[in-house]
Amino acid sequence: MTVNAFQGYVHQQHYDFENRKAHILAAKEYYKDFHHLCQLYDLAKTTNFDLNRTNNPVNNSNRMEKIQKYQDKKNLETKLEEMEKRTHVEEEVQREIYLSQIKLWVMRVEDEIYNINCELPMLEHMEKIRGGQVKQRPIIKPKVMKPFILVKSELQKQVFGAGYPSLPTMTLDEFYDQEMKRIVEEQERQKNQPKPVEPEDPDEETEESLAKARAWDDWKDTHRRGEGNRHNRS
């Protein structure tokens, strides 16, 4: 019954890039056949299992499911190990061992299917890059800070500078002045940049709107409703 699971596992162990995609697609088909067969015998869940699902993004439900599956897997492995240690195994116990091994493979196959679903998009993207359909992003090298010797005084600068002519030497004051100059230039650059215009909040009350609201309230207090309205009046 576990033949398809073993065949899928063997295909998944091929890591040569040229044939990697074909191998994991074949492995997924074997895994699907095995999982479907286990569903027919009620050894695998028939609901809440998506063959195209990945493990990303990890949300709370996925996290709890992983924790529960990990605990179930460890309990099943412990139970299987204890049964296999028995010197005399009855027929019923032997049957339980076989069923536990199949259930353990069901858990492994479900995880491997999820892993294959995560790996496939990466392989397809790499194929597009190699085929020239997608341009590979240039690698941005980080700015490397050149080494230098930091000393406390001008005298130490002359001494260390003579011993290490290939490395620049500066005193603490010079280093401080250089850093302050860099910070000031950065602040000036940020000041010269135009500030983004924040959209006005329509619900925000201004002084003008508050003044109009107060004037309207005062007018309603001194005038009765309908006063001055002589339209259609006999």
Number of helices: 7
- Helix fraction, binned, reads 55-70%
Report the β-strand fraction as a percent range: under 5%
Supply the helix-strand structural class. mainly alpha
Arithmetic mean pLDDT? 77
Terminal CA distance:
99 Å
DSSP E strands, number: 2
Rg (C-alpha, Å): 37 Å
Instruction: Identify the overall geometry.
Output: extended
Low-confidence stretches: none
Major beta sheet summary: 2 strands, parallel
Order of helices and strands: HHHHEHEHH
Q: Largest beta sheet: what is the strand line-up?
A: 1-2
Can you offer a commentary on this structure?
- The protein has 234 residues and is mainly α.
- The chain is extended, with a radius of gyration of 37 Å.
- It starts with a helix and ends in a 12-residue tail after the last helix.
- The relative contact order is 0.07.
Write the layout of secondary structure elements.
Blueprint: H1 3-12, H2 17-40, H3 60-84, H4 91-130, E1 149-151, H5 154-163, E2 169-171, H6 172-192, H7 207-222
Parallel strand pairs: 1-2
Helix pairs in contact: 1-2, 2-4, 3-4
